[in-house]
Amino acid sequence: MIEGQRVIDVDAVAQAAGVRPGHSVPAASLLLPELQFVPRDLLAERQMLEALAGCASTHTPRIVLAGPAQVLLELHGSLRLFGGLEAIVRRLREMIARLGLRAHLASAPNPRAALWLAAVHEEIHPADHEWQQALGRLPLSALRIDDTISDEQTFTTLGLIGARSVADLVDLPRTGFTRRFGADLLARLDEARGRRAAAQAFFVPAERFTARSELTHAVDDAAVLLFAARRLLVQLEAFLLARAAATDRIRLELRHDEGPATVLIIDMGLARRSAEHFALLTREHLERLSLRAPVVLIAIEVSDLCRMPEPSQSLFPDAPGIAQDIDRLVDRLQARLGPDAVQTVHVGDDHRPEQASLNTPWRQRDWREQAQGTLMAAGRRPVWLLHEPRPLREVDNRLYPDRQSGFDSQTPLRLLTGPERIESGWWDGADVLRDYFLAASADHALLWIYRSRSVDAHWFLHGVFA
After folding, report:
1. Which residues contact 61 (CB under 8 A, 6 or more apart)?
2. Contact 384, 464 (CB under 8 A)
3. What does the domain layout of the chain look like in residue ranges?
4. Which CATH architecture has domain 209-309+316-336?
5. How far apart are CA 231 and CA 294, in angstroms?
6. What angle do CA 244, 56, 147 make, to 5 degrees?
7. pLDDT tens across the length of the chain (466 residues)
8. Alpha-carbon dihedral of residues 196, 198, 199, 204, nearest 10 degrees?
């Protein structure tokens, strides 16, 4: 049920008010005729619960999805590692808030007791010698959380015999209790008191991530779509944490009332797992997108999982944040301009200058390796080569740049070093026969020029040193 911007579980409210099961919707309609009723999305709830389990997996691998809205964590082995229960609870609350959820937390020496303590909607973490007393004070309504008591007739009968709390159930004769209420209820009571162990099926993250969010109304505004997608991206981060993985490719699907969905592919140069970074790139894509129709549902899918890149182990590491800032900048430029718009120069296995420096998309190589390879090449070769060599004017055995080159064309060039002879490429029909020199222009530019060793030898400007 939606009231303005609030979502209310009608059945839960009706149950607390004493309305009989099956009558909650009609009763709510009579009280507030303007209410809008929306059916539960059980798949979305399950995905959110798995995302919560993924977040919690950073503190323990022993996680149980105990019900449609309950998550159990075994934290005994993690207390010392993470600074105690209070520190873990604080971190869990921060994770829960990022997912846009509210939770009731409780702890106990066994899972059944923890579930029942959480059912009273208070944060309860009793000491080791106090948890039995805290459990005994719980009202019988706490046993609804895991369907220990789901039959209304059982509640009515227990009330007639004067049972109001868990302690009252413990005081009842076991033989008569089993005969009247069944062995299952007694077994769960023993589990909560620590007198009986129960097998648990631990949570195993899925191999691939899929999540969707159905919008309450059709949306065509990029900011609103980003807000709706952000929660899914937080779920994705939790999934990647649970898998100890990252991804460099996200498939975002925007579905409309009619016609095919709009699909966005978000590529990244390096594998990531940060929801903040995912949201930044998603915004770049959405702001450039022209929707053919309003969006009614957003879905995210990730199939390709990668290892998280290791931090740099160089002897002189980069200043804090530089590598991350460059990576983020490149990802944003690629998201805004296209995956092949950002390129880098690296050294090729060829002596011919045209083949020795190659442009490749940034995403194919690590930027530190690219920068290192470029600097190695810059020791003898300029980083910037002209697209086509430009002829130099030769007057009285002196060389002058042409007017279109952008350099001083009135003063002759001064040769500094050379020649460096290059004879290569005979095997593919594009052989070169050149003598290269380093020259200085009157405006202090360092130029890379060559003299062709053909019959009609000419001088050319081929590159400029930074």
Report:
1. 202
2. yes
3. 2-31, 209-309+316-336, 385-464
4. 2-Layer Sandwich (3.30)
5. 20
6. 130
7. 333 445 555 555 555 445 455 556 677 777 777 777 777 778 888 888 888 888 888 888 899 998 888 899 999 888 888 899 999 999 999 888 888 888 889 899 999 999 999 888 878 888 877 888 999 999 888 888 888 887 888 888 888 888 899 999 988 898 888 988 888 889 989 998 888 888 888 888 888 888 888 888 888 888 889 988 988 998 898 888 888 889 988 999 999 988 899 999 888 877 888 888 899 889 888 888 888 889 999 999 998 888 876 555 555 555 555 556 666 777 777 777 776 777 776 666 777 777 776 676 665 445 445 444 444 444 567 777 888 888 898 888 889 888 777 787 788 898 888 788 888 877 877 788 889 999 988 888 889 989 888 767 789 988 888 6
8. -140
261, 254 contact by CB (below 8 A): yes
CA 60/CA 258 separation, integer angstroms:
44
Which residue's structure tokens are 């059944």? Answer: 112
pTM of structure? 0.61
Query: Is there a contact between 97 and 234 (Cβ–Cβ < 8 Å)?
Result: no
Cβ burial, residue 455 (10 Å; 0-12/13-18/19+): exposed
